[in-house]
Amino acid sequence: MNIQMHFLTSTLVVLTQWLQLSSAQQYILTPEQERNANRTLSVGYVVYDGYTILDVFGPLQFLSDLSWPFDMNLSVIAKAAGPVHSRPPLHHGPDGMAMDMSKMVDAQIVATHSFETAPPVDVLIVPGGVGDLTLLEQKDRSIEDFVASRLDTTNYVMSVCTGAGFLARAGVLDGRRATATKRTWDHVTRHGKNVTWVPNARWVQDGKVWTSSGVAAGMDMMVAFLRHIYGDPVVNMSVNEVEYAPVVDPNWDPYAVIFKVSFPP
Ligand SMILES: *[C@@H]1O[C@H](CO)[C@@H](O)[C@H](O)[C@H]1NC(C)=O
Ligand SMILES: *[C@@H]1O[C@H](CO)[C@@H](O)[C@H](O)[C@H]1NC(C)=O
Ligand SMILES: *[C@@H]1O[C@H](CO)[C@@H](O)[C@H](O)[C@H]1NC(C)=O
Ligand SMILES: *[C@@H]1O[C@H](CO)[C@@H](O)[C@H](O)[C@H]1NC(C)=O
User: Fold this and answer.
1) What pTM does this model have?
2) How far is the CA of 35 from the centre of ligand 1 (A)?
3) Of 69, 76, 169, 175, which shows the fewest CB atoms inside 10 Å?
């Protein structure tokens, strides 16, 4: 009850401020942003065992908050519908050593759809995670095949962290600029053809494709993306309510230095 009242009040505050801003013409929405305010944005989040928790739930926090003033729906898409684990499955290190991570805590998410049953989406997001190593070892290309099959019919394709590796292997990044986590830069950037990998970037937008650097950078990319879609006023109010200070400069990136990344690797 109290929470609902709070939500109602804060939404009214948001909308009032938005109207005030619009009427004062301090911030003018583009025609596309006005259209977006009236339509349902359909979001598809791809998940797999060993996904990185914040790569999924960081951006989802902002999507979820903005789905109150705007209409959105969410499909969580995996190889099979049902629970998907953050705990990385067994895989091997570069030296061939078995990596048994079964002692790690597990946060599960429930996939609502399989790749076969996933509905059309406007936005497709692929998170990073150690689970990509297991899929690579098993030569499992189901995520890449799914993403490639949806490229033409999806308005926006996004990745967080090592998620860029899936996009690169799916051919989504061919001839494009992109970025990825600096922590495992060489691992991700050896995929794809003629990709201009940008080391000094928090995120990169190239047309309909948005890629972010490691883990927390996905939240900054999502905030920038939501501003692009809906304009600043409502998004800023929502981000302030989360008490999150997003990086707004896509070129801000201390991590390329920390992880000694340059391109070509
Ligand atoms: C959006 O909806 C509002 C209210 O329903 C309407 O006044 C406005 O013309 C619509 N804008 C667009 C671009 O369709
Ligand atoms: C999301 O909304 C769109 C547009 O209304 C609709 O076509 C689609 O079926 C919805 N998807 C889900 C998963 O509810
Ligand atoms: C590589 O991509 C660039 C665009 O980034 C394009 O201009 C160029 O023709 C591409 N080269 C090849 C060999 O595909
Ligand atoms: C929204 O917030 C960002 C900082 O997070 C700022 O750069 C931008 O100017 C703000 N926009 C408006 C309309 O207040």
Assistant:
1) 0.89
2) 7
3) 175
